[in-house]
């Protein structure tokens, strides 16, 4: 995301980086037309226009092309344009998500709607005059056709002049002019009316697609209550500064990323992470902007500015992903670049060959050739892939599935094997006490002795013992002379005795093997557990076993992948005994004792057989994530998760991997449906036109109607049900769930 301070700054070569908001684009070909026109102007480089975010980025030398000329060129093509430098100055301090329509107009107040209304009125008046005065029937509908021809014809000529001669506007203008010349005035007027209606509907549908990401921006409340002394004052949430403390009442949305400094509550983070269960929050817990505070009041210290909060970063990454072209989209663009001139050639031959070679009627074959021109426009075909990719990425983002590009979305659905890291991915990432085995006394006595020694330590085993003691209500006993023996044990004087918590090997060194329950220790270790021995004055008091337990949803997630026909393998650096114990519990194949380079070798073996995805915590799995066909980070919204790999599961849910695959497959099926509709309608109308069945107004429906159908079909992905709320459905998802 460009920082406000950098917008419009001079870059190398005396050029400035500028951005514009472009309004009125209703299909990707619009973006291509603008890029082509702007790129031909002198002094302009690095032109990039995202159809989805409507943001035009370029480097401009104003001595060669003033901004007024640049903006005028865009407006001459029929699009609105607004300098985003101006937007930033007006809305200083507000997060720029790139999703708000700068025009801020309702669809029925747009220029397209006004033009459509005018042409519709002229057509209605023309038919009324034809009915009242039949003698004027040949002329009554000419005004409607001429209005459309002037507007669209002027745009077609401009596009031809700036490098886009084979535009839908040019094809439609030729067809309209030809219909007028051969006396088909009613057909000509209906063609321009249907074209105008089609453009209007395409714009409405495109706006609906963009609203998927705009809905994310709306999650952040407009205002926040900043604690100022003993009072709370209301300020715009966009102006919150790092370090400020805000009050979040029950029912309020959290206004910024931050950390709880006072209070306890449950927070619903499902709109951001997709986690359907409210998350308990207490002092020290991180919170995400847009989460809904459910129960108690919280005081939250702001840790990120509005322009850098989790939602703003997600929106930025999603828009970048939507702007990238998938392999299928690139192929279709290359195909359509050759397809349109071919259709024009066929239309010309249709007009000339029958009359010249066979003496056929000129009027009939000119009419059919004009219909072919309208059928030949590739708008629906070009839109078929990016519309589905856009909706798929937006649908994922709204459910905590961040997909960073169309190529990744396509590839995810083709994977046949998933390689999982163990720690922090399939497991919680922190050990928990699983067994207390007192040799003398009770469980509480054993836990109390160990807790006194480990109090104050940050070691994961110490934290697990302290958490278990707190959960069991074991009081903390006083201790002195606490000391750590790295890699071996912890010591302290408790109740006049030297109490030690250490490994079984250390315990044998201290008291010999005679009093040690070796069989019990071996059995616990066979279960993949870490065992520590508690000693008091060099005598064993008991055993404490710990294990990094699987995530609650890991078994369900692996099962969902299995139903989708995807195998799972766990890659871990742990010893084979620990790895196999976790693997048996989850039902996955295990590759244990792996160094980072060994994980790369395992990924290479899997890739040789079929596309493979790697799932890791995004921190120490970078090489393996990069080596896989698709890297998926478990992240919970962290920087690493958002900036590494090809996709991120913001809710830290193993089931999210199955959701990603199901979403990808649904998206690809949607693309295939769109292509079938676009090409199928054209094929049908091509045959009926050559047979003389299709009128001009039906021919225009072959393009504008197909474009609207393709867009509406893609929008179904935004409404698809999420498998995460019903894991049993993960294997059953299809575009029909949309």
Automatic annotation (TrEMBL):
Keywords: ATP-binding, Cell membrane, Membrane, Metal-binding, Nucleotide-binding, Translocase, Transmembrane, Transmembrane helix. It is a multi-pass membrane protein. Gene3D superfamilies: 3.30.70.100, Calcium-transporting ATPase, cytoplasmic domain N, Calcium-transporting ATPase, cytoplasmic transduction domain A, HAD superfamily/HAD-like. It is an enzyme of class 7 (translocase). GO terms for molecular function: ATP binding; ATP hydrolysis activity; cadmium ion transmembrane transporter activity; metal ion binding; P-type zinc transporter activity. InterPro entries: ATPase_P-typ_cyto_dom_N, ATPase_P-typ_P_site, ATPase_P-typ_TM_dom_sf, ATPase_P-typ_transduc_dom_A_sf, ATPase_P-type_domA, Cation_Transport_ATPase_IB, HAD-like_sf, HAD_sf. It catalyses: Zn(2+)(in) + ATP + H2O = Zn(2+)(out) + ADP + phosphate + H(+). One of its GO terms (cellular component) is plasma membrane. Pfam families: E1-E2_ATPase (PF00122), HMA (PF00403), Hydrolase (PF00702). It is found in: Cell membrane; Membrane. Residues 16-82 form the HMA domain. Its EC number is 7.2.2.12. This is P-type Zn(2+) transporter. The lineage of its organism: Bacteria, Pseudomonadati, Pseudomonadota, Alphaproteobacteria, Rhodospirillales.
């Amino acid at each position: 995301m460009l920082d406000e301070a950098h917008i419009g700054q001079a870059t190398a070569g005396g050029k400035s980086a500028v951005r514009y908001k472009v309004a009125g684009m209703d299909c990707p070909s619009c973006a291509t037309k603008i890029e082509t026109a702007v790129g031909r102007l002198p002094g302009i480089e690095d032109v990039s226009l995202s159809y989805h975010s409507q943001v035009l980025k370029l480097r401009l030398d104003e001595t060669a092309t003033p901004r007024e000329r640049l903006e005028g060129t865009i407006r001459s093509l029929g699009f609105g344009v607004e300098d985003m430098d101006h937007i930033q100055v007006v809305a200083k301090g507000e997060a720029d998500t790139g999703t708000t329509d700068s025009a801020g107009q309702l669809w029925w107040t747009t220029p397209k709607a006004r033009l459509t209304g005018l042409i519709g009125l002229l057509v209605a008046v023309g038919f009324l005059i034809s009915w009242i005065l039949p003698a004027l029937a040949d002329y009554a509908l000419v005004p409607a056709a001429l209005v459309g021809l002037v507007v669209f014809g002027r745009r077609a000529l401009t596009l031809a002049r700036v490098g886009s001669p084979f535009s839908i506007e040019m094809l439609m203008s030729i067809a309209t002019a030809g219909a007028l010349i051969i006396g088909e005035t009613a057909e000509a007027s209906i063609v321009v009316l249907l074209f105008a209606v089609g453009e209007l509907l395409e714009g409405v549908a495109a706006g609906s697609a963009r609203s998927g990401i705009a809905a994310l921006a709306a999650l952040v409340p407009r205002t926040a209550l900043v604690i100022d002394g003993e009072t709370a004052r209301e300020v715009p949430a966009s102006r919150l500064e790092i370090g400020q403390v805000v009050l979040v009442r029950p029912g309020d949305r959290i206004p910024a990323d931050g950390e709880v400094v006072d209070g306890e509550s449950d927070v619903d983070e499902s709109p951001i992470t997709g986690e359907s269960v409210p998350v308990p929050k207490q002092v020290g817990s991180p919170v995400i902007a847009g989460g809904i505070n459910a129960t108690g009041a919280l005081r939250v210290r702001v840790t990120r500015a509005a322009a850098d909060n989790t939602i703003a970063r997600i929106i930025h990454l999603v828009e970048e992903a939507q702007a990238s072209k998938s392999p299928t989209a690139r192929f279709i663009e290359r195909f359509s670049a050759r397809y349109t001139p071919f259709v024009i050639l066929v239309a010309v031959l249709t007009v000339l060959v029958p009359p010249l070679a066979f003496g056929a009627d000129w009027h009939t074959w000119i009419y059919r050739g004009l219909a072919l021109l309208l059928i030949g426009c590739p708008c629906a075909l070009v839109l078929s892939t990016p519309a589905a990719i856009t909706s798929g990425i937006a649908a994922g983002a709204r459910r905590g599935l961040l997909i960073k590009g169309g190529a990744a979305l396509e590839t995810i659905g083709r994977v046949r094997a998933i390689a999982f890291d163990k720690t922090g991915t399939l497991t919680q990432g922190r050990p928990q006490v699983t067994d207390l085995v007192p040799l003398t006394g009770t469980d509480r006595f054993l836990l109390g002795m160990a807790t006194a020694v480990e109090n104050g330590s940050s070691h994961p085993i110490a934290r697990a013992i302290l958490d278990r003691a707190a959960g069991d209500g074991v009081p903390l006993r006083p201790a002195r002379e606490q000391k750590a023996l790295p890699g071996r044990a912890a010591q302290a004087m408790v109740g006049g005795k030297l109490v030690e918590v250490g490994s079984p090997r250390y315990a044998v060194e201290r008291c010999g093997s005679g009093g040690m329950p070796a069989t019990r220790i071996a059995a616990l270790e066979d279960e993949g557990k870490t065992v520590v021995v508690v000693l008091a004055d060099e005598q064993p008091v008991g055993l404490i076993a710990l294990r990094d337990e699987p995530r609650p949803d890991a078994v369900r997630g692996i099962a969902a992948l299995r139903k989708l026909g995807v195998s799972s393998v766990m890659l871990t650096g742990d010893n084979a005994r620990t790895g196999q114990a976790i693997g048996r519990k989850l039902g996955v194949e295990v590759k244990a004792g792996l160094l980072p380079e060994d994980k790369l070798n395992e990924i290479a073996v899997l890739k040789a057989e079929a596309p493979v995805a790697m799932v890791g915590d995004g921190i120490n799995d970078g090489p393996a994530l990069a080596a896989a066909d698709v890297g998926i980070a478990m992240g919970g919204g962290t920087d690493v998760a958002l900036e590494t790999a090809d996709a991120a599961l913001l809710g830290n849910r193993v089931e999210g991997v199955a959701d990603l695959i199901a979403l990808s497959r649904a998206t690809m099926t949607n693309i295939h449906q769109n292509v079938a509709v676009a090409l199928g309608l054209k094929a049908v109308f091509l045959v009926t036109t050559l047979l003389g069945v299709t009128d001009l107004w039906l021919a225009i429906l072959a393009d504008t109607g197909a474009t609207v159908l393709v867009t509406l079909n893609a929008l179904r992905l935004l409404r698809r049900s999420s498998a995460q709320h019903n894991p049993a459905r993960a294997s059953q998802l299809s575009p029909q769930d949309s």
